[in-house]
Design a protein that fits this description.
The chain is of the alpha/beta class. The chain has eleven helices and 15 strands. The protein folds into two domains: 3-163, no CATH class; 168-334, Rossmann fold. 36% of the residues lie in helices and 22% in strands. The termini are far apart. Residues 15-72 form the XdhC- CoxI domain. This is XdhC family protein.
Length: 338
């Protein structure tokens, strides 16, 4: 699931806990082009505040107009649901900013249960996969733990959506680069943990919303329990901190494992891991370094953009051409002109 959807569920949970009335909207069907995928969610509070998105903005405006006190209306009674469709014809598609021929269908839940939302968010934050089944007739929700992720189903009066786990990032090293990477990662929906046993670095950490871990990095990787939606990035340049953490990460399910450093440092790291820890070229195939895509970056902020772009490409299944790698690009730029 997109981590923005976890944010939507957290907002809905918190608003319900505060006694606010909430509408939860989910995209359940699309025809033609659609700004947001099936399963995308939005939470709408009774005063018009919204988190998440189901379109490019016009449908959100219509939902606010129809269902909030911002325009003098009231949300529907607790437990009620409704199915609405936008973009049935060309005029309506144009009105709501949908692409030509685009149509989407939403399930609206009015005042979903705070207890259900609290349980769901807690399980997602714990890294669980959760199947949420909504009975449209009465608004009741069943939460189960499935064996595998399945596509959203909307049929026979039930909405069945498999959610989670959220994308997570573990950063080794709490320096300036980690602050930029963690900020960008949070903007892109990752839950971020930074690990650094060096007190002077952790005391200076200033990025809100990041979990802090002061264990030795290899222990932190074990505690982090990386899964297929986890990435681990070593940023200290210190082999005493990076190497053992990378060893643990390489033998996990993390979709991305990488370390900052020059081409020479990266080669030295690989040689150390093979000589002292029995790794092989095959076992190190997953290790990325130098990390990032080549954009001529020099400053910590620019390097963070480069690193985050590569992580997102791997997450989204994009095969980057070799010439975009930092190593190949630098070799090409350093090659003598013929």
């Amino acid at each position: 699931m997109d981590n923005i959807d976890v944010m939507v569920l957290r907002a809905a949970r918190d608003w319900r806990a505060a006694g606010q009335r909430v509408l939860l909207a989910t995209v359940v069907r699309t025809w033609g082009s659609s700004p947001r995928p099936i399963g995308a969610m939005m939470a709408l509070r009774e005063d018009g505040r919204a988190v998440g998105s189901v379109s490019g903005g016009c449908i959100e405006d219509d939902l606010i107009y129809r269902y909030t006190r911002a325009h003098g209306d009231q949300l529907q009674p607790t437990g009620a649901t409704e199915v609405v469709r936008y973009g049935i014809n060309a005029d309506e598609a144009h009105r709501f900013g949908l692409p030509c021929g685009g149509t989407l269908e939403l399930v609206l839940e009015f005042a979903p249960s705070h207890e259900d939302l609290h349980t769901l968010v807690s399980r997602l934050e714990a890294g669980e996969l959760v199947r949420r089944t909504l009975n449209l007739a009465d608004g009741n929700v069943l939460l189960e733990r499935p064996d595998a992720h399945t596509a959203l189903r909307f049929e026979d009066g039930y909405l069945v959506n498999t959610l989670g786990p959220e994308y997570r990032m573990l950063l080794i090293g709490a320096g300036a680069l980690a602050e930029y990477v963690s900020t960008m990662a949070q903007f892109n929906g990752f839950s971020v943990t930074v690990c650094d046993p060096r007190v002077e670095y952790m005391d200076a950490w200033a990025v809100p919303g990041v979990h802090k871990d002061t264990q030795m990095p290899d222990d932190a990787v074990v505690s982090f329990r990386p899964d297929q939606r986890s990435c681990i990035v070593a940023l200290t340049h210190d082999p005493k901190l990076d190497d053992l953490a990378l060893l643990e990460a390489l033998h996990s399910e993390a979709f991305y494992v990488g370390a900052i450093g020059s081409r020479r440092n990266n080669q030295g790291r690989r040689e150390r891991l093979m000589i002292h820890f029995g790794e092989t070229e095959a076992s190190l195939a997953k290790l990325r370094g130098p990390i990032g895509i080549y954009i001529g970056s020099k400053t910590p902020a620019e390097i963070a953009v480069s690193v985050m772009a590569e992580i997102l490409a791997v997450k989204n299944g994009v095969q980057l051409p070799g010439e975009m790698s930092v190593a190949q690009a630098k070799e090409r730029h350093e090659a003598p002109a013929l």
